[in-house]
Design goal:
The chain is built from 14 helices and 18 strands. It is an alpha+beta fold. The strands form six sheets. A six-stranded mixed beta sheet has the order 10-9-13-14-16-15, covered by helices on one side. The protein has a four-stranded mixed beta sheet with strand order 1-2-5-4, with helices on one face.
Length: 450
C-alpha cells in the first residue's frame, strides 16, 4: 500500500507515462541505490489519469531505448488508495548508466540530478565495492551460515510486509548471500555467518571508554577505563554495540506530566543511527582496521574505515544517499535497524539539537569517516522577542511548535497572499536570530526550533 508515502530517494511518482521523465528515473535509480517508479500519481501522491498496461509497456520500451546501456527493470503492482497502480522496480546496477544525450543522473531527494567530472568517476569506482559483496568467500561452505540467524531475518522480513519465499535457499541466492549452489558470499557471511570474524577479522568492532577528554587513562597515563571487542554477524554487532554504549552512558530522569521520563547522555536515535551507519557503510575490503567506538567524558566518536562512498560528501549527507554495500544495507533494513533509507542523518541532527546538544560533527577523509556526538547540553535562556518580528514569523514559529518543523512550501501555504521571496527572507531572519535551525538544502530544506 503506497498510503501516505512521499517521493524521495528511492520512490518517484510520475503523473503520466512520459518517456523522457521515465528514462531519467531509470538512469538515476540504477546509478544509485535503486528505487520504485509509480505511474499515475502526482508529486503529492494524488491520483491523476488512468494509465493502461499497454501504454506503460510502450513507454517503458521507449524509455529503455534512451538509456546507455539499457536499465533492467521489472513490473510491480502497487496498491493505492483508489485501486491498483503500475509500478516499475529498478535495481541498483553494477554498471554506470547515462541517457542518449550523454547526461549521467543520480537521485537527489525527490529529483534526478545530473553529475559530471569527478562525481561520475566516483560513481563508476563505487560499483566495484558492490561486486565485493557477492564474491564467494574462499573456504566458506553452507555449514558456516547460522540457521537461527537466517530464521530471525526471515521473520523480521515477513513482518516488514515482504512476501514470503517458500525456499530459503532461493531467497539467500536472490539477496546475494549465496551463489546458486549455496556457497556463501561476503554479504552472506557478514549477515548470517556463525563466525564471520574467522573470514573477515576486520568486521568486528572495538569499544574503548576513556575517563577524560583525551585518549589516556587515569591521571594522564596510558590506558583506558573499559575495552570490549564486539563480534558476530552484523545484526548482533549492532545490538551488542548499542548495549555496551548504553551501559556506559549516564542516565538521568525528569518528571513530565506526572510521568517519569528517562534522559540519556546522548539521544538514543542519534547513537543508534551512527552505529548502524558505521556497520552498514564501512568498507569491508579494508583489512587491518575495525570500526572503533571511542567514548570520552565529553563526546562519543564512531570511526568507520573507508571514506564516503560514491558521490557522497559531508555537504550532501542530508539530502542524498548512496550505499557502498547495498545488500548489507538491505539486510539491516529488513531486520529493522534502518527505518527508511536516506532519512537518518537529518533526524540524527534534529534529535541532537532538540535535546540541547550541538549538531553531530561529520569528518571524512579518503580512508576514514568519523561521527562525533557531543554530550555538552546548551540550554540558552528564552530568546527575547524583538518588536520587529512580524505576524507571519510568529505564525511560522507556532506552526513549528505544533508540527516539529516547517518547509518553504508549508510556509507559503500558511501565507498564500505573500510572495515566495518575502517568505524566504522571513525564514532567513529567524535563522539569523537563532530561533530556527535550517536542516538540509535545496528541496529537502526544513526548519526546526533551535
Amino acid at each position: 500500500m503506497i498510503g501516505k508515502k512521499k517521493p524521495g530517494q528511492r520512490l518517484a511518482f510520475l503523473a503520466d507515462a512520459d518517456v523522457e521523465n521515465l528514462a531519467e528515473c531509470l538512469v538515476a535509480f540504477a546509478n544509485g541505490d535503486g528505487g520504485l517508479i509509480v505511474l499515475g500519481l502526482d508529486d503529492n501522491g494524488r491520483s491523476t489519469e488512468n494509465i493502461w498496461e499497454e501504454e506503460a509497456e510502450s513507454a517503458l520500451r521507449e524509455a529503455a531505448s534512451l538509456c546507455r546501456p539499457p536499465v533492467p527493470s521489472r513490473w510491480q503492482q502497487v496498491e493505492g488508495s483508489k485501486g491498483t497502480l503500475i509500478g516499475i522496480n529498478v535495481a541498483r546496477s553494477l554498471e554506470l548508466h547515462s541517457l542518449y544525450d550523454g547526461r549521467v543522473l543520480i537521485r537527489s531527494g525527490t529529483r534526478n540530478r545530473p553529475v559530471a567530472g569527478d562525481e561520475i568517476l566516483d560513481i563508476a569506482n563505487s560499483k566495484n565495492s558492490a561486486e565485493f559483496e557477492t564474491e564467494l568467500v574462499p573456504g566458506a561452505h553452507t555449514d558456516d551460515l547460522d540457521q537461527e540467524i537466517i530464521n530471525e531475518y526471515l521473520d523480521r522480513r515477513q513482518k516488514r510486509g515482504v512476501a514470503k519465499i517458500t525456499a530459503t535457499t532461493e531467497l539467500l541466492f536472490e539477496i546475494g548471500a549465496t551463489d546458486r549452489v549455496g556457497n556463501p558470499t561476503t554479504a552472506g557471511i557478514l549477515l548470517f555467518g556463525k563466525r564471520p570474524q574467522m573470514f573477515f577479522p576486520q568486521s568486528s568492532v572495538v569499544f574503548v571508554r576513556f575517563p577524560g577528554n583525551e585518549p589516556r587513562g587515569e591521571e594522564g597515563g596510558i590506558g583506558y577505563g573499559r575495552r570490549d571487542e564486539i563480534t558476530g554477524p552484523l545484526a548482533r554487532i549492532v545490538e551488542r554495540a548499542w548495549n555496551v554504549v548504553f551501559e556506559e552512558m549516564r542516565v538521568g530522569a525528569t518528571v513530565n506530566t506526572l510521568e517519569r521520563e528517562e534522559i540519556t547522555e546522548y539521544p538514543r536515535f542519534a547513537v543508534r543511527e551512527a552505529l548502524v551507519n558505521a556497520v552498514a557503510h564501512r568498507d569491508y575490503r579494508i583489512k587491518g582496521r575495525r570500526i572503533e567506538i571511542r567514548m570520552y567524558a565529553n563526546r562519543l566518536e564512531i570511526i568507520s574505515p573507508g571514506g564516503l562512498p560514491g558521490y557522497m560528501t559531508v555537504d550532501n549527507l542530508v539530502e542524498e544517499h548512496f550505499s557502498r554495500n547495498p545488500r548489507i544495507v538491505s539486510g539491516l533494513y529488513q531486520w529493522g535497524y534502518i527505518e527508511e533509507l536516506g532519512l537518518g542523518i537529518d533526524q540524527m541532527i534534529e534529535e541532537m539539537v532538540q535535546s540541547g546538544h550541538q549538531p553531530p560533527l561529520f569528518k571524512a577523509s579518503p580512508h576514514l569517516f568519523t561521527v562525533t556526538l557531543s554530550n555538552k547540553q546548551e540550554r540558552p535562556s528564552p530568546p527575547k522577542w524583538t518588536h520587529n518580528m512580524n505576524e507571519r514569523q510568529a505564525r511560522a514559529l507556532t506552526y513549528v511548535r505544533e508540527n516539529g518543523s516547517i518547509t518553504n512550501r508549508e510556509y507559503r501555504q500558511l501565507c498564500s497572499d505573500v510572495s515566495a521571496e518575502t517568505l524566504r527572507l522571513d525564514l532567513v531572519d529567524l535563522v539569523d536570530k537563532s530561533l530556527l535551525l535550517k536542516i538540509g538544502s535545496k528541496k529537502g530544506t526544513h526548519y526546526i526550533l533551535k
